[in-house]
Amino acid sequence: MAGFFISFEGPDGAGKTTVIEALIKKLATVTDREVVETREPGGSEIAEEIRQLILDPKHTEMDDWTEALLYAASRRQHLIEVIEPALTANKIVMCDRYVDSSIAYQGGGRELGMDKVRQLNDFAIQGELPQLTLYLDVPVEVGLQRVKKLGAGFDRLEGQALAFHQRVRESYLKLVEQNENRIQLVDATQPVEVVVAKCFAKIQQLVK
Domain 4-207 classified CATH 3.90.79.10? Predict the structure, then answer.
């Protein structure tokens, strides 16, 4: 693939959306490449419909493996429709969450097993990993308080017990250790302009 694939990960409330928006503006000053902003679950029409199904708070009876399979299905459709065509066209893809989210949330948070969820998603993505993943790290309590302040209410995953979110963060930190060449940790408790600057420096090393 000719383009660059960058994903952003973090616990709920890490500030990924804000950081991505700021980075896209900064990238426009240093590259002529088109930047494609996308997200998971979602990013394409079919994948967005799966997103609504997964995150709807009324779906309290959804089996954990059903949830994991739906995420993988959404990811596959998104990859084929959006990510791969953009990379082939020499664009920069900035994706809010990707496969590491499933490993952390379903593998760790839901306790399905990080390796099992990784294997499931290996089938879905067929080896298509980001060249760079920026993991924005915040303590669980800080992140959830940020989400609460937004006043939009919790979706089906955000509304899980504190212990679930603790397991998610612990799983992310394991992924950072296991993938040190791809996943870069950024302390997201810092002022947003500092977080953006640190992320931008890492992206510049990739796309220069």
Answer: no
What DSSP character marks residue 188? T
What pTM was computed for the model? 0.94
Task: Confirm if 44 and 78 have CB atoms less than 8 A apart.
Answer: yes
**What ranges make up the beta strands (E) of 27-89?**
35-39
Return the domain boundaries, the chain: 4-207
pLDDT in tens, 176-185: 999 999 999 9
Tell me the sheet residues that pair with 172: none
SS3 195: helix
Give residue-wise pLDDT tens across range 162-174: 899 999 999 999 9
Rounded distance between C-alpha atoms, residue 84 and residue 69, angstroms: 21
Two tokens, residue 192: 């947003």
* Residues whose CB is less than 8 angstroms from the CB of residue 25 and which lie 6 or more positions away in sequence, other chains included: none
Length of the chain: 208
